[in-house]
Specification:
Layout (H helix, E strand, L loop, with lengths): L2 E7 L4 H11 L6 E8 L5 H8 L3 E4 L8 H14 L4 E4 L8 H6 L4 E5 L14 H10 L3 E8 L9 E8 L6 H25 L3 E4 L2 E4 L2
Parallel strand pairs: 1-2, 1-4, 2-3, 4-5
Antiparallel strand pairs: 5-6, 6-7, 8-9
Helix pairs in contact: 1-6, 5-6
C-alpha cells in the first residue's frame, strides 16, 4: 500500500522541491506526495506542487478565530486527504496539540540545526544560523524529527552535520545547511517512514536498515 504524504508549506518550498525531486528520481519508496497545504495563498511552493500535478489547498489563519480553530481546520483537511505522513516543510504557523493527537509519530519536521542545540521557541529561519555563527561552534547541520507537543522536542529520526566557516554569513550558512543536510535527510526520512523502517521507543528512534 502506497502511503499518502501531505506537505505543509508557507513559503518558497525548497524542501518541498527536494521531496518532489527525490520522488521523481524514485527515491521515496512506498509513498507518494498527494497533497500540499499552504498557510499562504502566495507561497511559491504551491506553484512547485502544481507543476508536478500535486493537489494543493490553501488554509489561511486569518479566516479562523484562534489557533485551536485553525489547527482543527488543518487537521480535518489532512484527515480528509487520508494522509499517512505529514511533513512540515517551512510551515510557519504553530499548531496546537490536536494535530499531534490526530497524527502521533506521523508528522515530521526538518530543523536547520543539530537538535538539542539552537532549537525551540524563536529558533527559525535565519535566526538559527545567526545564533550558530555568534556561538562560535564549528559544526552545525540539520535534524529531521517527529513532531510532538514540545517545540523541536520530538524523537530524532536523522541528523547530518555541516561545517561552519569563519566568513559565513547567516545566508551563506543557511544555503550550505539546506544543500548538504536538509535536502538529503528529509527525503531519506520520508522514504524510511513509508517503508515502515522507523521504530520509536520513547524519545529515541531505531532505523531498520
Amino acid at each position: 500500500m502506497m502511503k499518502n504524504i501531505a506537505v505543509l508549506v508557507s513559503g518558497g518550498g525548497t524542501n518541498l522541491q527536494a521531496l518532489i525531486d527525490a520522488q521523481n528520481r524514485g527515491e521515496i519508496i512506498g509513498g507518494k506526495i498527494t497533497l500540499v497545504v499552504s498557510s499562504n495563498p502566495d507561497a511559491y511552493a504551491l506553484k512547485r506542487a502544481e507543476k508536478n500535478n500535486i493537489a494543493t489547498k490553501v488554509c489561511e489563519k486569518k479566516n479562523y478565530k484562534d489557533r485551536a480553530e485553525y489547527t482543527a481546520a488543518i487537521r480535518d483537511i489532512l484527515l480528509e486527504a487520508k494522509a499517512d505522513l505529514v511533513v512540515y516543510a517551512g510551515f510557519m504557523t504553530i499548531l496546537d496539540e490536536q494535530i499531534v493527537k490526530a497524527f502521533p509519530n506521523k508528522m515530521m519536521n526538518v530543523h536547520p540545526a543539530l537538535i538539542p542545540s539552537f532549537c525551540g521557541e524563536g529558533y527559525w529561519g535565519l535566526h538559527v544560523h545567526e545564533k550558530v555563527i555568534e556561538s562560535g561552534v564549528k559544526l552545525t547541520g540539520a535534524t529531521v524529527h517527529f513532531v510532538t507537543e514540545e517545540c523541536d522536542g520530538g524523537p530524532i529520526i536523522l541528523q547530518k552535520a555541516s561545517e561552519v566557516k569563519f566568513d559565513d554569513t547567516p545566508e551563506i550558512l543557511q544555503k550550505r545547511v539546506m544543500e548538504e543536510c536538509e535536502w538529503k535527510i528529509l527525503p531519506r526520512a520520508v522514504s524510511l517512514f513509508c517503508q515502515d523502517k522507523i521504530e520509536v521507543y520513547g524519545n529515541r528512534t531505531k532505523i531498520i536498515e
